[in-house]
Amino acid sequence: MTINFIKMHGLKNDFIIIDGRHKKVHLLKNNIKKISSRKKGLGCDQIIILEKPRNKKTNVFIKIYNADGSETYACGNASRCVAFLLMKEFKKKRTVIQTKAGFLNAALKKNNQISVDIGKAYFKWNQIPLKRKMNTKELNFKISNFDNPFVLNVGNPHIVFFTKNLKKINLKKIGPKIEKHPLFPQRINVNFAKITGKNKISLKVWERGVGVTKACGTGASATVVAAIKKKLINDKICYVKMDGGKLKIEYKINGHIVMTGPVKIIKKGDLEKFL
């Protein structure tokens, strides 16, 4: 069976997108790992499978798989890429995507920028989740010289450390230790951030089930919310710089988080040799 794909990226956070709306697609964990491999496969951070809408309000239901084959329920940059394809297909400037985390409203902005509303952040210990009840806004957690991080859930769980020096962080070494710490039963995405201006943040991310990524939309969103809650920044609109580029994050009065940035199609093809 021929399965076509589109490879896209949002700020070099890259995805293999497969349309399973008309022909159901099921990938085994080994297939996902093989496709995602940057040495032997197509190379990507996540694989996205489009399915038929499960609700009249939406245009599509998407499943998101990390490079290690595990499933996750939210990915901001992937949602923006999918939104771009849907708006192009239906010749619309708005679309609604459904994931296991909820409904995402997306829109086409100036200069082909794509925005997506990823909903609200959640702060209770059992919403992250943590292994036990703890203060999530100043977590009693220390690793190396980093302590008192902020933890929250924005469709997936994130831990945010604020530091004055990002260059000294060995993310490949410290990232997996935090991700797989017993305190986080569903593992966690790891963010190290530096406040660089009134409404500017630099960010490095270790993604759960993936590793170091060039950008992370939910990571940028979680970091901005954490910075506002900790009163490190005052503006509700913030620009987050990552290795892959810059995302605009807006933390709205109603608690919703909207991210805006560019997306790009890299290549198209079929997956036959990977199945």
Question: Which characteristics define this entry?
Answer:
275 residues; alpha+beta; Diaminopimelate Epimerase, Chain A, domain 1; 2 domains; 17-stranded mixed beta sheet; two-stranded antiparallel ribbon; 4 helices
Describe this structure in words.
This protein is of the alpha+beta class. It has two domains: 4-119 and 262-274, Roll (Diaminopimelate Epimerase, Chain A, domain 1), CATH 3.10.310.10; 122-254, Diaminopimelate Epimerase, Chain A, domain 1 (Roll). It contains four helices and 19 strands. It is globular, with a radius of gyration of 18 Å. It starts with a strand and ends in a 5-residue tail after the last strand. The relative contact order is 0.18. The model has no long low-confidence stretch (mean pLDDT 96).
Helices and strands in order, then pairings?
Elements: E1 4-10, E2 13-19, H1 29-36, E3 46-51, E4 60-66, E5 71-72, H2 76-90, E6 94-99, E7 102-108, E8 114-120, E9 142-143, E10 146-147, E11 150-153, E12 157-162, H3 171-179, E13 189-197, E14 200-207, E15 211-213, H4 217-229, E16 237-242, E17 245-251, E18 256-261, E19 264-270
Parallel strand pairs: 2-3, 4-6, 12-13, 14-16
Antiparallel strand pairs: 1-2, 1-19, 3-4, 4-5, 6-7, 7-8, 8-18, 9-10, 11-12, 13-14, 14-15, 16-17, 17-18
